[in-house]
Amino acid sequence: MSIIQKVVFAIVFSLNIGMLYVLVDMIPEKYDYPHLNFLFYIYGSAMITLVLAAISCSNIF
Questions:
Q1: Cα 56 to chain centroid, rounded
Q2: DSSP element (H, E) containing 25
Q3: Which of 1, 39, 45, 47 is 20 to 30 A removed from 55 (C-alpha atoms)?
Q4: Dihedrals φ, ψ of 27, to 5°?
Q5: Residue 1 has what pLDDT?
Q6: How many CB atoms lie within 10 A of CB 27?
Q7: How far apart (Å, rounded) are the C-alpha atoms in residues 9 and 7?
Q8: Residue 11 to residue 54: CA distance in whole angstroms
Q9: How far apart (Å, rounded) are the C-alpha atoms in residues 48 and 26?
């Protein structure tokens, strides 16, 4: 991976994590279960990472 791809990856990942925080804030308090936020962050981070990895592989091959 070139340095440009690494920078783009970091920027896109950071923006998507920021959007994840916004989405968590939109959940009403009556649906706020103890570990829901943690699981949501794990799921969101996994999806973001997989999409970025797919794009990276597409650019390489």
A1: 15
A2: helix 3-25
A3: 39
A4: -70, 125
A5: 65
A6: 13
A7: 5
A8: 16
A9: 19
DSSP one-letter code for 27 = S
d(CA 17, CA 48): 8
Residue located via tokens 């950071």: 14
What angle separates helix 36-60 from helix 3-25, to the nearest 10 degrees? 150
The H or E element that residue 45 is part of is helix 36-60
pLDDT tens per residue, range 3-59: 887 888 788 888 888 888 898 888 888 887 778 888 888 888 888 888 878 887 887
Separation CA 30–CA 53 (nearest Å) = 35
20 within 8 A of 41, measured Cβ to Cβ: yes
Task: Tell the residue number behind the tokens 């920078």, with chain if given.
Answer: 7
